[in-house]
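Problem: given the chain below (302 residues), write out its structure.
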Amino acid sequence: MELNNLPEGCIANVLSLTCPRDVCRLSVLSSTFRSAADSDAVWDTFLPHDYQSLLSQSQSQSQSQSLSSKKHLYLSLCQKPLLIHDGKKSFQLDKADGKKCFMLSARTLFIVWGDTPRYWRWTSLPDARFSEVAELVSVCWLEIRGWINTTMLSPNTLYAAYLVFKPNPAGTYGFDHQSVQVSIGVAGGDTRKRTVFLDAERGRSLRYQIVPRRAGIFNRARFLPSAVEAPPPAQDTNNNLDLEYPKERGDGWLEVELGEFLNQGDEDKEVEMGVYEIKSGDWKGGLFVQGIDIRPKPTPLN
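Solution.
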């Protein structure tokens, strides 16, 4: 029997057992496959079971419900974050497999001295996802913590958390030679700690360093700059992990990974994430903090 002779409902049942990427690929086989691949029965299986509850928490609920099909709703949630919880969190789907992604705004985080204008200010930026971001003015004790419940996330999924921030164009100080400690842990389990830098320029400069070389007639000691590959970054002696530096996101902000955790989904637990620099006593400032992004960690198979 040719595949095109199968009932459309049968094809839809088979497609619902695959993934969104495969459904889109198989839709080009024939008009019957395309019709089945566009059906609500298929795309409803890729939407999270609680998507209606999440939509009800958004101010743009009516706009989402007006979409013509479950496929359009799925693609909309992949392409544009949905603000929930009074605009203080955002929800999105991973386009490849429909796993849930969340960002916690700075307003939902615990920030030491966060309500003291001398140390932190709350402001708005046109390229931010949320209405407010936290501006680090100047502190000698940097401590930021956030929490998310595992029941909000997709089960059987390896997640990673990222601090989302960017430097103040007016200037940043105190981070060029000072690392910070980040941590992540699930309640009842071990807390993983690592060391990172928040200065993206320092990360770029470590790729090359300027060293002197002799040049000129009669081998005179005239020094000219020569770009050579620098030695690899120092390692975090506590965890034997290479130090990490911020990476630029697609939205123009920077992010640095705080760590990863496996959400098995069989228990209701709390994940705590943190950023700390409380040992040096040095003053630091000049950053905008947008929040903490929690999303599935890419694997070689993705």
